[in-house]
Amino acid sequence: MTEISTPLAGLDAIDWSELEHAYGPAEDVPAQLRDLCSEDAEARGKALHALYGNIFHQGSRYKATAAAVPFIARMAADVSLPDRHEYLTMLAALAIGYDESHLPAGLDVQGWRSELEEFRARAPEEMRAEYDAWVEAASDEGDRRVREMRRDMFDHERHLEAAEAELAAYDAVRGQVPTLLPLLADVDPAVRAATAYLVAWFPEEAPDALLRLLDVLDAEPEPAVLATALVAAGLLGDASLVDRLTSFLTADEPIVRWAAAIALARLIATGAECTESVDVLAELAAAQAEPPEAGVPFHGSDLRGYAASSLTLLADRYPDEALDAVTDGLSATSGPATFPVAEAALKLAFGEPAPNGLPAFDELTERQQRLIHTLASLGPDTWRWANFWSIVQAWRLPQQREEMRAYAGLPHE
Question: Using 50, 70 and 90 to split pLDDT, how confident is the model at 234?
Fold first, then answer.
């Protein structure tokens, strides 16, 4: 059968039954890709949902993922199709998973490639012995049980297969970047923003991508698109961009100033000199008190959370001010939005997690005590999440709200 629609050319030439996704053979993927080209909005929505579930299951990628990438990329570039920004966003997810794990520093693709090569070179028996030693080094019985479970679940062959599939998906999307870069000038602002977001994750394509992004900075009329391009430029660029990005710290639109501060914080962390670093701090601190309205796709559009993690990049210059700002932001959050802010605050207050935990409350500094009070004062809608427990537990803090309140000397509720 010959496909009529150009984006689907070659779809039937692939033996999808030989490719795996989350639920087994990927025989359902061709129909879902066809439905993405449908004129029926409901059919497109169902197909997109299904693909996120099978070739991107909870962030995992599979052999079928890389095979689907060229078709989705051609759909994104086909101006006759709707929802093209959705397909660009999906391509970014297929390439990198959830972006929070790569922020605020950006994607270290060379480290990723080296890590996979090192894993390939290691014998399963050697890794098993390291797991055994890790279990023996557990700090208590609860920690030991968790470590034993992780050791027992580890499967060298499956882990290698998954790691190779993830990098293959990344490289498949990378191969489409040159043909997608022109979409930074698309007539649809949603497409322009999604393209800027996508290209931010490919440092190996930075020379061409940055030239295009700088054109966006010169001409983009939409604040949200401009802000997305600023963040992308900051993730791909180096010290040579500092002066160019600094000019946006005085923009009228809060989202643009926020994006410039995000971009500059990342460049400062790489060693770039920025004479306006105090203004970067001020913008990120302002976002803790009152973040701009969402409209930028980075960090799941959680602008306060992204600003909090970016403030950790300024800790060497402004340790007290950064911690104060993030603690203020923490007090204004609840539920899942608390997670990145709490992690940033703990890192600013105590550094990286230590195996021996924290000292008695009265031995903490005033700012550290204020942070513990803030954590203990967060409501049940935050403390009910296991994600939050794992964050505080990493610093060997109590995992239950009442225990945290007791540690902080607060009354029982």
Answer: very high
d(CA 228, CA 297): 7
Tokens found for residue 126:
């050697």
Candidates 6, 169, 170; CA nearest to 76 is 6
Task: Among 32-46, 81-95, 346-360, name the one with the lowest average pLDDT.
Answer: 346-360
Q: Which two tokens stand for residue 353?
A: 């997690």
pLDDT band at 4 (very low <50, low <70, confident <90, very high): very low
Please report, for residues 88, 106, 202, the alpha-carbon distance to residue 166 in angstroms, rounded to integers and kept in the order given.
17, 17, 14
Omega of the bond leading into 319 within 30 degrees of 0 (cis): no
Please report the pLDDT score of residue 2 as a whole number. Answer: 40
Pick the residue with more confidence: 412 or 321? 321
Q: Rounded CA gap, 115 and 98, in Å? A: 19
The alpha carbon dihedral of 12, 24, 92, 105 has a sign of negative
Q: What gap in Å lies between CA 338 and CA 116, rounded to an integer?
A: 32
| Three-class SS state of 21 | strand
Percent of the chain residues topping a pLDDT of 70: 99
Per-residue DSSP letters for 267-310?
HHHTT---TTHHHHHHHHHHHHHSPPPS---GGGG-HHHHHHHH
Instruction: Give the pLDDT mean for 238-248.
Output: 97
Q: What angle do CA 392, 393, 399 make, to 5 degrees?
A: 80
Q: What is the DSSP letter of 203?
A: G
Would you list the domain boundaries of the chain? 1-175, 201-313, 318-413
Q: Is the bond preceding 7 in cis, omega lying within 30 degrees of 0? A: no
Which of 197, 216, 225 minimizes the C-alpha distance to 90?
A: 197
Bridge partners (DSSP) of residue 21 are 24
Alpha carbons 110 and 105: distance in angstroms, whole number: 14
Please tell me the distance from the alpha carbon of residue 222 to that of residue 85, in angstroms, as a whole number: 15
**Confidence band of 355 (pLDDT split at 50, 70, 90):** confident
